Amino acid sequence: MNKKKTLLIGAALLLGAYTPAHAEILVGFVTGLSGPVSSIGVPNAKGLAAGQAHVGEIDGEKVRVIQLDDGSDPAASTRNARKLVEQEKVDFLIGTSGAPQTLAMATAAIEMKVPMVAVSPIAPVPAGEGGPWVVQTPQPTPLLVQGIVDHMKSRNVKSVAFIGFSDAFGDLMYNSLLQSAEKADIKVIANERYARSDNSVTAQVLRAVSLRPDAIMLGGTGTPGALPVIALSERGYKGPLYGNHGMISADFLRLAGKSAEGIICPTGPVTAGEQLPESNPIRKVVLAFRAAYEKANGEAPADAFSPYAFDGWLVFMDAAKRAKATGATPGTPAFRNALREALFTTKDVVGAHGIYTYAPADRHGVDTRARILVQIENGKYKLLP
């Protein structure tokens, strides 16, 4: 080999050594690891870890996640979202625990033009410039509440009292109940609210029970959701008691104890995955989720919050793979736009809570396959027909 050729090869090798590596895809994840919503936020974090354990690469390249704790504070949710986008330059956002916190984060995401998967239910948000930016994995509240109202109607319930949070989640639950109950000729005769940080709901419970409703529906989640359950039991309430998907957690069962016996809750298929028929594609993903959760966290899942984050990760990874195929470079507005377009053309992504197909006019992406009813019996969730 002559000297000139050797120099040319050496130069080429040297240039190769300085060729920049492929830009990595960055995800910003916000959750409530502390504060009153941590009973949801900690499982959310474990669910995302399970998602990464299940599928962590695209075309052989790892996707990097930056996680921040918002302390269950909506203002911190906004600050964290801004920090992740403006300082860390993330391409995508996932979060957070609690409806008010998630709404705050989603609002910031839309303003900064960053696509996001919400892992808590949120009220409708403005589309933003060029179209929508945010989808959610939790089933729409009306879909879940419709299951409750259908069950009430089958038991000939004519009146129902509501006791729930005095925040965006409570509003979602109450408004969904009003909407479905009216069509079923069921009268909503009480609307009692309490803050997540309250230590007592005695007054609210007494007012609701004094109206002698045929049933009571609860609009609280996690550990604060156990307060009215305990208070109702202490006052000898024996009527039908309906909960919600936010009561599917080991923390709720532990705190509510025997007071929770008999509560009927709507939830996703993941809660009773083994009882689904073999032909149901969700069953396979539920089993995969549980295996990945144990691998990532060293314990079995015991809640319905972690699968929302797991499903959010699956939805993101599906969109990211298709966005990457466009040739756009991660870390650029072009890649964020490609991610957004991919997100809203998601089709039949099977998760643990449902099968997701998003469109600009549908940020929920699920149908009745994402809902089952369970009843709490002996500290466990039993599938209802």
Care to give the gist of this entry?
It holds the Pfam family Peripla_BP_6. With 385 residues, this protein is of the alpha/beta class. It contains 12 helices and 16 strands.
List its salient traits.
single chain; 385 residues; alpha/beta; Rossmann fold; 2 domains; globular; Peripla_BP_I; transport
What this model shows, in words?
- Residues 1-23 form the signal peptide.
- InterPro entries: BCAA_transport, Leu-bd, Peripla_BP_I.
- Keywords: Amino-acid transport, Signal, Transport.
- This is Branched-chain amino acid ABC transporter substrate-binding protein.
- Helix 4 (99-112) links the parallel strand 5 (92-95) and strand 6.
- The strands form 5 sheets. Strands 4-1-5-6-7 form a 5-stranded parallel β-sheet, sandwiched between helices. Strands 9-8-10-11 form a 4-stranded parallel β-sheet, sandwiched between helices. Strands 12-15-16 form a 3-stranded antiparallel β-sheet.
- 42% of the residues lie in helices and 17% in strands.
- The protein has 12 helices and 16 strands.
- Helix 2 (38-54) crosses helix 10, helix 2 (38-54) packs across helix 11 (306-324) and helix 11 (306-324) packs across helix 12 (333-343).
- Mean pLDDT is 91; it is low at 4-21.
- It folds into 2 domains: 26-138 and 285-367, Rossmann fold, CATH 3.40.50; 141-267, Response regulator (Rossmann fold).
- It has helices at 3-17, 38-54, 74-86, 99-112, 141-154, 168-183, 202-210, 226-234, 250-256, 281-297, 306-324, 333-343; strands spanning 26-31, 57-58, 61-62, 64-69, 92-95, 116-118, 134-136, 159-165, 187-194, 215-219, 241-242, 264-267, 349-350, 355-356, 372-377, 380-383.
- It is of the alpha/beta class and 385 residues long.
